[in-house]
Amino acid sequence: MQDKEEERSLINVEKRLDQEGFTADFKVTEGRLCVMGTDKTYPADQVQIVDFYRFEGESNPDDMSILYAIETADGVRGTISNSYGTYADSKVDEFLKQVEDLGKNLDKRNK
C-alpha cells in the first residue's frame, strides 16, 4: 500500500491519471479550452471537470496548486493545473468557474 503523502504528490497523481486515460494537456486561450499540440478547442459547455486535486508547497503553505482532470464532450481526457491565490492564472480560473457553474445547472435539471 502506498504512503498517503506519496499518493498526494503531483507527479504521482499525474501518473495515475495518465494511466486512467487523462493523457491530453490543456490550456486556456481566448476563453476556450485548448488541447496542446493540436488545433482542438472547446467552449465551457463542452467541458466537464471529472476530479481535482489540491497540492500545498512543502516549504510555503502559500505555494499551492490545483490539478483538474477534465473530459470534453467528444471524449478527449486530460489535465490542466493552476496556482492558487496570488499566483493563479485568471484566464484558467474564469474558464473553470464557467464549467463549474454549468455543471451545477446540469445537476439541478437532472434531479
From TrEMBL:
Name recorded for this polypeptide: Phosphoribosylpyrophosphate synthetase
